[in-house]
Amino acid sequence: MHFLYLALFILSVKALPHRCTRGQAVPAAPLTPSQTPSNATLGCSVNQTSWQFDHKNHANVTLGDRSFLVHIPTAYCPTLPHALVVSFHGYKANDVRQELITGFSAAGLTLNGRGIVAVYPNGQFGPGKNGNEIIRAWQGAPYSPPGVDDIAFTQQMVQLLSDNLCLDSNRFYASGKSNGGGFTNLLACTPATAELFAAFAPVSAALYAGANPADCNPGRSVPIINFHGLADKIIPFDGQAADSQGRTEYATPNITQYREAWADRNGCADLPPDAGPSLGIFASVSHPYTQTTVKTSNCSEKSRDAVVSGFTVDNLGHFWPSTLGLDSGGVPAPFNATEDGILPFFDAHAFGSA
Ligand SMILES: *[C@@H]1O[C@H](CO)[C@@H](O)[C@H](O)[C@H]1NC(C)=O
Ligand SMILES: *[C@@H]1O[C@H](CO)[C@@H](O)[C@H](O)[C@H]1NC(C)=O
Ligand SMILES: *[C@@H]1O[C@H](CO)[C@@H](O)[C@H](O)[C@H]1NC(C)=O
Ligand SMILES: *[C@@H]1O[C@H](CO)[C@@H](O)[C@H](O)[C@H]1NC(C)=O
Ligand SMILES: *[C@@H]1O[C@H](CO)[C@@H](O)[C@H](O)[C@H]1NC(C)=O
Ligand SMILES: *[C@@H]1O[C@H](CO)[C@@H](O)[C@H](O)[C@H]1NC(C)=O
């Protein structure tokens, strides 16, 4: 792993500020091992990171031939563990675009009552859907760059973040849109990363076979919150056997069945038949926003972390839901996936809090 540290290269301009939330003591020195909570990463007990953050609290960190954009909250405190949200961009997009459409860096957002460290990694360039382009994409799609191990990259990136920032290892989360949502699903299906991240949020996910393997076997019950629009023409809600050009490698599942498969995998099918009105494997249905149906599996008797929550939005296209239409040219969705759905779900699902 040492070559990773040598490969680390930073492009920014200002030292990491020592800012802590008002009212909290600001320790003068790094935590000693006896002061450090067990969920605090190494970055809580070493001296200030060499990472340089600019005036908007961004650092662009390079790891080998990869890069990821890091945003620390205004109230970042280098001796208090913060939650980490990794947000993977879609096909043709990048770190900056993903930060813009998801808003995980917005001021005032919290997990466990503390500001969030939000990270937007860049995919490698692949051949594109036509095979002769140069377009960023994550592992698991027909257009992914061949031979790139994005799971290993993600593990190395989280390790580097853990060593350089003060993070709460019980509160690492993965999310993504479209191709990045498909990759988020692949992380949930993979035992090593199902143990790394406490919960997952695939949005308008491109669930090609490589991202949603038939033998998905995470090794634990995995909390998943999923959003999909009924007007999505890129990844249709009803699924497709092939794309418009007849390419079967572009097959994607019926999203209802995709959610049911997760509930089934999580053991939710074991609910007693008298658990409530018949919703299939789902235990509750609600309409918290206009044009929005939320179905949630309730497997709390088996495991509180088994929850699968599916948001279906009537007129939503292939977008990250936002009332400001940040991803849809200003066309508003009925709610913000980030603030109203994902962060409350993540807050309710941490490791080590049975
Ligand atoms: C860390 O900082 C403390 C003082 O704040 C200093 O005594 C110590 O030598 C530093 N350790 C390293 C490894 O730089
Ligand atoms: C970060 O650096 C990489 C090159 O290492 C570049 O491709 C990427 O666009 C940069 N991101 C930002 C936000 O500047
Ligand atoms: C999608 O799956 C659900 C649940 O099995 C089913 O009710 C629905 O008819 C399916 N939709 C299509 C278009 O096949
Ligand atoms: C889930 O089921 C348990 C009993 O099995 C019940 O106590 C709880 O209220 C249910 N929660 C929801 C959100 O339906
Ligand atoms: C969504 O976020 C925007 C920007 O922060 C905010 O103005 C709006 O009130 C939010 N909407 C909801 C439903 O939370
Ligand atoms: C993790 O550490 C933080 C900060 O010390 C603490 O507030 C939180 O309760 C811890 N969470 C768990 C699950 O241990």
Describe this structure in a few short sentences.
With 354 residues, this protein is α/β, with parallel strands linked by helices. Helices cover 19% and strands 20% of the residues. The chain has a single domain (37-347), classed as Alpha/Beta hydrolase fold, catalytic domain (Rossmann fold).
What does this structure look like?
It catalyses: feruloyl-polysaccharide + H2O = ferulate + polysaccharide. GO terms for molecular function: feruloyl esterase activity. The protein is α/β, with parallel strands linked by helices and 354 residues long. It has a single domain (37-347), classed as Rossmann fold. The chain is built from 7 helices and 15 strands. The protein has helices at residues 2-7, 95-102, 150-164, 179-189, 191-194, 255-265, 337-348, and strands at 9-10, 58-63, 66-71, 82-88, 110-111, 114-115, 117-121, 124-126, 135-137, 167-177, 199-203, 224-229, 284-286, 292-296, 308-313. An 11-stranded mixed β-sheet has the order 1-2-3-7-4-10-11-12-15-14-13, sandwiched between helices. A hairpin with an 8-residue loop joins strand 8 (124-126) and strand 9 (135-137). The protein is globular, with a radius of gyration of 20 Å. The chain starts with a helix and ends in a 6-residue tail after the last helix. The structure holds 2-acetamido-2-deoxy-beta-D-glucopyranose (6 copies). One 2-acetamido-2-deoxy-beta-D-glucopyranose is lined by residues 11, 60, 62, 67, 69, 95-96, 122.
